[in-house]
Amino acid sequence: MRYIVIGGSGFVGSYTITALQESIAQGRIDSGEIICLDRVQNHTLGTFVFCDLLQGFDFPLKSSDIIIHLAARAYAPKPPLKPFGLKTLERYFYDVNVKGTQAILKSMLESNARKLIYFSTDMVYGKPAYLPVDTSHNRAPFGYYGQSKVLAEDLIAKAREQGIQASIFRPRIIVGAGRYGILTKLFTLISHSLPVPLIGDGSNCYQMISVQDCARAIICAIESSFPNNAYNLGSHNPPTIKALLGNLITQVGSKSKLIPTHAKSVKLALGVLEQLGLPLMYKEQYAIADCQYIVDISSTQAELGWNPLYNDSDMLLAAYKHKFKD
Predict the structure, then answer these.
(1) 93 with 86: CB under 8 angstroms?
(2) Shortest CA distance to 108 belongs to which of 158, 167, 67?
(3) pLDDT (tens digit, 9 = 90+) per residue, 111-153?
(4) Cis peptide before 227 (omega within 30 of 0)
């Protein structure tokens, strides 16, 4: 048996490989070789094989392989807008998130490999029609990234009809030591005790999920024999944004002040900048920034025996401290 971690050098991938190693040592999952497939080698993660999904997928799979597909293009690092402006994003996300997934599934079917775990995103849902958002919620993403994940999920659904067992995870904002993305701007303001503008008044909850809990969910899916379902990943009882950021500012000794804004005006300005090719944030990031957004994790808990161990405040503080540890 082999555990094939595609995108294994990335943020979630590195934590996943560590979780696999620990779970094998504990006897939670079967022993097997862990292989990291990625474009960039991480020397701490065991067996590495170069893989660039832009060039297809030519890694020879075996029927007993467990494939953990984490590779994706997202908004971090910042995607290019040249030469065609925002339309470039469609191709940018499609080439890896859709075509790459299609190539992996083709290889799995040809080699009779049948076990897959895939990381999608909560962005497939778009604006919540009700709360908490469960996995049967309509998929209506705001932008090309979410759309690419919907298409990838649809490819996996078709592959299930041909015998592939696939568990799909839709995580909220993944946070932890070593990942910053959109948090970089926030952390920089706080570290310099500068004002922190909110989108809206900060009275809404904007749920997160720790990277450690994401890795644990993967182990739970393996233990549960890869159920053919989609599962949300999010924290328990997230605080309001105002409380979350206020707590972080206090914990790190910053003098930053939270500045409420008129959400509609801010989002209009962000939209104009995006259309001009000067995005501070993308629509998929700011469109629901002032909305109450909580995903339903009850099916993940009931079917996989998984529970989040980290709360939003702890994971945000860990990320901040790691960012400025030097």
Answers:
(1) no
(2) 67
(3) 999 999 999 999 999 999 999 999 999 999 999 999 999 999 9
(4) no
